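Thread title: Can someone regenerate the structure for this chain?

I was given the following input by a collaborator and told the matching structure tokens would be attached. They weren't. Posting the sequence so someone can regenerate them.
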Amino acid sequence: MEVAREAFTRSGANASLDDIAKKARVGPGTLYRHFPTREELLQAVYRSELEKLAAAERKFAQTMKPIEALRAWLLLFVDAIAAKELIAPALNTLLGDHKKVFESSYAQMQEALRSLVKRAIESGEIRSDLDPLDLLRALVGVAHVATSSDWQPSARRLVEILISGSRPIR
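Best answer:
Regenerated them for you:
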């Protein structure tokens, strides 16, 4: 999946499947057995990225304080937006509206964020009126209005601003 993600990110929808198989150290037959079409491989790569993001919530929640888990997940989300922005044009070329294809992955991602925010609210580190989707909207907004390719540092700074602004008023 990682090799395919890198190839689609670098070359778009027309990345060579044979090159992907070679770099992944599998035969072309193996690749085509698992992903009979280019569209299926693109879908699998995109879905995998979103599922990794959703799964990170559980890891972070088990190993970090609530506010640190939320911060780490939001920073990971910024990286996922970057990957999506690079892969989405390839998906759009082949699939049209890719959002419909991945509604269940988006739901997993939103549930992960809700869980992190709930935990941070319960710990008293985040104000109780915070809507988790406001955090996503802010970060996605930065990505969509970015006029340069270096929007990621700005989005990472925005995570810190969002965390600070989400603290309870004392």
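The domain at 46-165 is CATH 1.10.357.10 (Tetracycline Repressor; domain 2).
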